[in-house]
Write a structure and sequence with these properties.
Organism: Streptomyces anthocyanicus
InterPro entries: AAA+_ATPase (IPR003593), AAA_lid_6 (IPR041627), ATPase_AAA_core (IPR003959), Beta_helix (IPR039448), Carb-bd_sugar_hydrolysis-dom (IPR006633), CbxX/CfxQ (IPR000641), CbxX/CfxQ_RuBisCO_ESX (IPR050773), P-loop_NTPase (IPR027417)
Shape: flat
Family: Belongs to the CbxX/CfxQ family.
Protein name: Right-handed parallel beta-helix repeat-containing protein
Number of strands: 67
Keywords: ATP-binding, Nucleotide-binding, Repeat
Structural class: alpha/beta
Number of helices: 14
Radius of gyration: 36 Å
Distance between the termini: 102 Å
Helix content: 10-25%
């Protein structure tokens, strides 16, 4: 058979038809062929737009796969409108407005095709077509890999999308294909996407990886069912559902995802069975909005690479976990917002760095027959309206078994808390809760620790081998109502024969010990709120505008580069607000900052003004400054560090948390230092409360560079670093002049020159305090002036106000 010819073989039995023939073009051969004929194409390149309208077989020569190239200059290279067989062809498309292979009708078979194109789609199936596509590859870096549209269907077996400029496989407008053992990778959009009512995608044994969007995306009332599939190494989320989408995952594996492994919203429904989710950077399951629901059975979620809860349920969504395992994660399960609910049955939550179950903002959690092990906190019911039930659960080896705060009111029934290192149960800050038939054993602290006069109910509970005592009820102080405090009935401990609450109006139980114990102050507890805040925590005058505060900033001596940075941030925030009011998108501005520089360069002052500016712009509620250091955040006992850090955040709510010498949280010889726990807690809180607290970390330049380099999780939270340079002699002189003017002193002739020389010669070692040194110098001059003037019997006004060069202290 000659190069570039087509041989047509007739397979019928009619004696009136010729049996074979050769044609110089594919178009001529197709025109001559009848149903059932075989068209064997000789090797070569055919610049033709083929339209197959009969049930023929079109194939390349045996043993020479890829030797036949269908490569027209434009248009659709291959259109199939019949139940034909197309085999072993190389199809090249160059038209960005047309598909490379278009299947419009019939039930054709496409076997061994290689589609290399820069087309709208590599293979496109439309309308009533139901092709079977086997062992085909699509390389289309300009458009969709495989598109199934307008009610189309078919089966794709062992196919591969090796590159796509948009989605790897796109299903829409009521289409419903099935993929079996296919691979989709290196797509610029989602790997698999289904959208639109009536659209359905089924995939079995498929793999999606190295895609720049979501691995699987189902939206707008579409449905999908994936069985035994792998989704991994995506740039976006692993699986995304939105707007009434329905997805079932059975025996699937989702892993190595930098964002959410699964994210669903807007009344979408997800069912997972025997599916594993691991190595995810944000949430393993992220569930949002009323009507959105996840049902997971026999699933495993583990090995988080980020600092986010493994399961996040909010805004009225629902999640059900049955016979699941969640482990090796920062937090296991967060459910928040009124109407949100989580039901967990016969499941294991273990190796959790922070909180296994967190319930807040009016949400509900129901756990039955579950096991919670090796967490900082087993279950934390955080605030008013938050509740639910723990029934027949075991909490083993956690720092604290159950925490109830701020009016939360759960029911804990027939649960066992074993070997907590802090307390079995801790209730404070107006928390309530009912504990029925519960047992705490082997606590390194108290069994049940109830403070602040919380109205907690304990009925038929028991404690055994609790190091500090089975029950500790510290009242709320002299202002506590007479009927506050725990209600205790038929409770026992191995240190006593029984525990019974006295009748009102006396406090229910009052002990001599008023200390809250190792757990210290939970954020928002009443005793903490009564403590006076440090002076810098006072809220600034709300009447001041951002212009007025910036004026005070400009009045500071020196700091020109710092002023430029703060003004740039302020301008970004202000323009963002104006854009939002105009209905435009506003650029996201990270407000957390790093201040580097030597002591006394004005870092705290600028932080205070920055908070006041943000408050004047409406970014923060108060704008006050809470200044802390390592000693305020790091505790002496396991678990107390996280609580101290949380308490600092609570005080800074609506303002600025300023952490001085932040590098001390990560010493070079850290070992088992608790500073890492403070950092981990900070990183999480900075994300959870990013709209209500601005964090500024400060310290020496070199030490802060090391701190940020060894803690990338911290570094990623900050938008920029601002360097505070050392003051020069002239700037230090101006500070002294300001101090003198403020305190009604004057510099005599020659004193300014003497001060300039003094500040030039003063050692600039670690003890040098910049602005602080200038103020200390002024104070020393005032003291020496006082010693000199006190010897005068009748000093004049000049004597009382003038500072002379001889009043300067000696160089250190």
């Amino acid at each position: 058979m000659a190069q570039g010819t087509v041989q047509v073989t007739h397979t019928g039995t009619s004696r009136w038809r010729r049996r074979t023939g050769e044609y110089a073009s594919l178009a001529a051969a197709l025109e001559a062929a009848a149903d059932g004929d075989v068209l064997t194409v000789a090797p070569g390149t055919y610049r033709e737009n083929l339209v197959v309208q009969r049930a023929v077989t079109l194939r390349g020569p045996e043993g020479a796969q890829g030797s036949v190239r269908i490569a027209p200059a434009d248009g659709v290279p291959l259109t199939v409108r019949a139940s034909a067989v197309i085999q072993d062809l190389h199809v090249e498309g160059q038209d960005a407005a047309a598909p490379a292979v278009l299947v419009e009708d019939g039930t054709p078979e496409l076997l061994g095709l290689r589609v290399v194109a820069r087309s709208a789609s590599g293979i496109e199936v439309r309308g009533g077509a139901r092709p079977t596509v086997r062992r085909c590859t699509v390389d289309n870096p300009a458009g969709v890999g495989i598109a199934v549209l307008d009610g189309g269907g078919g089966v794709f077996e062992e196919c591969e999308v090796v590159a796509a400029g948009q989605a790897g496989v796109a299903v829409r407008s009521g289409a419903h294909p099935r993929l079996e053992r296919c691979r989709v990778h290196h797509a610029a959009g989602s790997g698999l996407t289904a959208t639109g009512e009536g659209s359905a995608l089924e995939a079995v044994g498929c793999e999606v990886y190295e895609v720049r969007g979501s691995g699987v995306q189902v939206t707008a009332r579409a449905t999908a069912h994936l069985t035994d599939c792998d989704v991994h190494r995506t740039t976006g989320d692993g699986v995304t559902l939105d707007t009434d989408a329905v997805l079932t995952l059975a025996d699937c594996r989702i892993h190595d995802i930098p964002e959410n492994a699964v994210d669903l919203r807007s009344r979408s429904v997800l069912t997972l069975t025997r599916t594993t989710v691991r190595q995810f950077g944000r949430n393993g399951l992220s569930v949002w909005d009323p009507g959105t629901r996840v049902d997971a059975n026999q699933c495993e979620i583990f090995d988080s690479t980020g600092d986010y809860p493994a399961v996040w349920v909010s805004d009225g969504a629902t999640a059900v976990l049955d016979s699941c395992r969640v482990h090796d994660v920062p937090d296991a399960l967060f459910v928040l917002d009124r109407g949100s609910r989580v039901d967990v049955v016969d499941s294991d939550l273990s190796q959790v760095r922070n909180t296994a179950v967190s319930v807040s903002d009016g949400a509900t959690a129901q756990l039955d027959d579950c096991r919670i092990r090796d967490a900082a906190t087993g279950a934390w019911f955080r605030d008013h309206g938050s509740g639910g039930t723990l029934n027949n659960c075991t909490l083993d080896g956690n720092r604290t078994g159950v925490i109830v705060t701020k009016g939360a009111d759960p029911t804990i029934e027939r649960c066992t808390v074993d070997s907590p290192s802090e307390a079995g149960v801790y209730v404070s800050a107006g928390g309530r809760g009912s504990f029925l038939n519960c047992r705490v054993t082997g606590s390194a602290g108290y069994g049940f620790h109830v403070i602040d006069g919380c109205r907690t109910t304990l009925r038929k509970c028991r404690t055994e081998r609790c190091a500090r005592g089975g029950y500790e009820f510290a009242d709320g102080g002299p202002d506590t109502a007479y009927d506050s405090g725990p209600l205790v009935e038929d409770c026992t401990g191995d240190e006593s024969t029984g525990l019974t609450a006295p009748a009102a109006p006396e406090p229910v139980v009052q002990t001599a010990a008023q200390s809250p114990g190792l757990l210290g102050s939970i954020p928002g507890q009443r005793t903490t709120e009564q403590e006076p805040l440090i002076a810098s925590a006072a809220a600034p005058d709300p009447a001041r505008t951002s212009k007025a505060v910036l004026g005070e900033l400009d009045a500071l001596v020196g700091l020109d580069s710092v002023k430029r940075e703060v003004r740039a941030l302020t301008d970004m925030i202000e323009v963002g607000r104006r854009r939002q009011r105009a209905g435009l998108k506003a650029a996201s501005v990270k407000r957390h900052l790093v201040f580097t520089g030597s002591p006394g360069t004005g870092k705290t002052t600028v932080a205070r003004l920055y908070g006041e500016i943000l408050a004047s712009l409406g970014v923060l509620d108060k704008g006050h400054l809470v200044e802390v250091s390592r000693v305020d955040l790091v505790g002496e006992h396991i678990g107390s560090t996280a609580i101290r850090t949380q308490e600092a955040f609570q005080r800074a709510h609506g303002g600025v948390l300023f952490i001085d010498e932040a590098y001390a949280l990560s010493p070079e010889d850290a070992g088992r230092d608790f500073g890492k726990e403070a950092i981990d807690t900070l990183v999480k809180l900075m994300e959870d409360q990013r709209e209500s607290v601005v964090v500024i970390v400060a310290g020496y330049t070199a030490e802060m560079e090391r701190f940020l380099s060894v803690n990338p999780g911290v570094a990623s939270r900050f938008s920029r670093s601002i360097t505070f340079g050392d003051y020069g002699p002239g700037e230090l002189l101006r500070i002294v002049e300001q101090q003198a003017d403020e305190h009604e002193y004057r510099l005599a002739e020659g004193t300014s020159e003497a001060l300039t020389k003094y500040f030039t010669e003063i050692p600039k070692g670690p003890a040098f305090g910049n602005g602080r040194t200038a103020r200390q110098t002024f104070e020393a001059m005032v003291e020496r002036h006082a010693s000199r003037v006190a010897q005068l019997a009748d000093p004049s006004t000049d004597d009382l106000t003038l500072l002379y060069p001889e009043d300067l202290p000696g160089l250190p």
